[in-house]
Amino acid sequence: MSNDYQNLSFAYQPCREQGQEHTGNPHPVIVVGAGPVGLATAIDLAQHGVPVVLVDDDCTLSSGSRAICFAKRTLDVFDRLGCGDPMVAKGVCWHVGKVFVRDEQVYTFDLLPEAGHQRPAFINLQQYYVEGFLLDRARQLPNLEIRWKHKVTGIEQCHAGTPDAAVVLTVDTPDGPYALTGRYVVAADGSRSPLRNLLGLDSKGRTFKDRFLIADVKMEAEFPTERWFWFDPPFHPNQSVLLHRQPDNVWRIDFQLGWDADPVLEKTPERVIPRVQALLGPDAKFELEWVSVYTFSCLRMDSFRHGNVLFAGDSAHGVSPFGARGANSGVQDAENLAWKLAYVLQGHAPDSLLDTYASEREYAADENIRNSTRSTDFITPKSAVSKVFRDAVLELSKKHAFARQLVNSGRLSLPSVLRDSPLNTADTDDFAGAMVPGTACVDAPVSGEQGQGWLLPKLGGQFTALVFGTPDAESLAALQKLLHGTLPLKLVVVSADRACAALPGISVLHDTEGLAAQRYDARPGTLYLIRPDQHVCARWRQVDIAGVQRAMSRATGNEQGTQAGAPAAQAAAPVAA
Q1: pLDDT tens-digit profile of 395-422?
Q2: For a Cys staple, 415 with which of 335, 342, 440, 489, CB 3.0–4.6 Å?
Q3: Structural domain total, the chain
Q4: Within the chain, what is the greatest distance between any pair of CA atoms?
Q5: 195 and 62 fall within a common domain
């Protein structure tokens, strides 16, 4: 594939269903939408051994920067999908942000103040590069079929609530329409979601009456690789401006315009160039690469699951761009959903496990909307009282540290802690630290047979029993029996002695700097059970085989009382890996 991802296009190809009166056996999963969320979902499913058909109504990658800020948690997911390295190599890594009021710096923050993590806090990378690297990975997977210029124009759900439940899509192509049937459909088709509209569903929330101009500017500049945000700068008074560096000497500049701005007029070079010159100086040399004017809303669907159709990413929820929560939360939707679909289709879990996708990611969406709304209200106050508060905070922040903590130029994306998930096992009281059940796992440097490495890649994409210290022979033998149970399980021992290395099925790691034990508040014998999406679902101070078995049943929806949302349906028929 060419490195010029921005200008790539893909040829339409006919498919086997066209011209057939009967569709045959349904595909296990159909993903609609080949953006970052759809591609991530399809890749994750394929890596779990589930055949996937991915359809998209277009034949190109995205244009312009669009989503550019990808958080550490998302990079960890991309690592597991097999495309993290090229993204980080191409992206601009950063962790420091600065906030200015007029021309005075009032606040600095560091998003990754501690060492000992493989990935940076954030990278800036244009969305077309992210889609391109995901597409490179998708094309390596033999059980993932991509269909360009296949537009979904109709949808019907059949035999709902039974083992024969399926979704029939009407797909329009240059050769005419055809019927495409899948057991499950993932709608990752964007904020205007045709699938959502076809089902007569909507999203509810709040639309903000303001307009912002995005200018992607190619230039040689001396700005550091940091996130800079101005309130009321001299070069753009009474508004706000955000500056980010991207690869290829492209800089993203967001100018607040106000609700009365004419979006067509503001995109013209005659309006954009003077704004950029006011920021950079009259002698600055630059080229406009892409320009857009946008408004935004904070909203979501009432439910992310409707029968065998599951909504993910912007089709399910939308937030303002302040805080980089859109694409990052969408990729986290994908990782939450993919393993659950795989377990249901392969007979490891009942269909009701998918209800927990909806409940967990609806909770995360509410958290993202709440934080995004607070940022937007601070940046663009909509009442006199809000503006008085905002201006007072900014003025006080020049001299007082407490006020700087109230400056909100967009609290940046963090993974949600799914503390109340029905898949968690009740925690014990003798743990300290942040790694409670429902938390996304954190990284740490480790070493093993292949030399120095990192903890998260060693956990993989299946259930993992993470044991600290050297378990006694009886515990090790019992843990090994778990490896041959009905559910796939990986066993990782950290800081074990060399006797463990000779035991089959056990990955032995050494905590080279003691950070793994510190971050997981681990003592000898501590055991964590990690979900396939690398969220903690249970932990114990000592190896508890019966506890692990119960926790795995709970985490796969096989234990009574773990179902969430709609009543449980029958388990789907297994799909061969």
Answers
A1: 898 888 898 888 888 877 788 999 999 9
A2: 440
A3: 2
A4: 76
A5: yes
3-state SS, residue 229: strand
The amino acid occupying position 572 is A
CATH number of the domain encompassing residue 500: 3.40.30.10
Residue 114 lies in a domain: no
Task: Give the predicted TM-score (pTM) of the model.
Answer: 0.93
- Domain closes at, from 369, 386, 410: 369
Q: Any residues with CB less than 8 A from the CB of 165 and at least 6 apart, and which? A: 157, 158, 159, 183, 307, 308, 569
What CATH number is given to the structural domain containing 59?
Answer: 3.50.50.60
Alpha-helical runs (H) found in 103-223: 127-138, 194-198
Element (H, E) at 80: helix 72-81
DSSP string, 235-257: TSTTSEEEEEEETTTEEEEEEE-
334 half-sphere exposure, CB direction, 13 A CA radius: 33
For 344-370, the pLDDT digits (tens) are: 999 999 999 999 999 999 999 999 998
pLDDT interval class at 84 (50, 70, 90): very high
Same domain as 55, residue 180: yes
Q: In terms of DSSP bridges, do strands 506-509 and 489-494 run parallel, antiparallel, or are they unpaired? A: parallel
Q: Give long-range contacts, CB 8 A cutoff, 24+ apart: 393-397.
A: 394/101, 394/106, 394/231, 394/232, 395/101, 397/99, 397/101, 397/106, 397/107
Q: Which of 126, 3, 135 is nearest to 69 (CA)?
A: 126
Question: The domain containing residue 529 runs over which residues?
Answer: 445-555
Task: Tell me the residue type at 575.
Answer: V
Cα–Cα distance, 234 to 325 (Å, whole number):
29
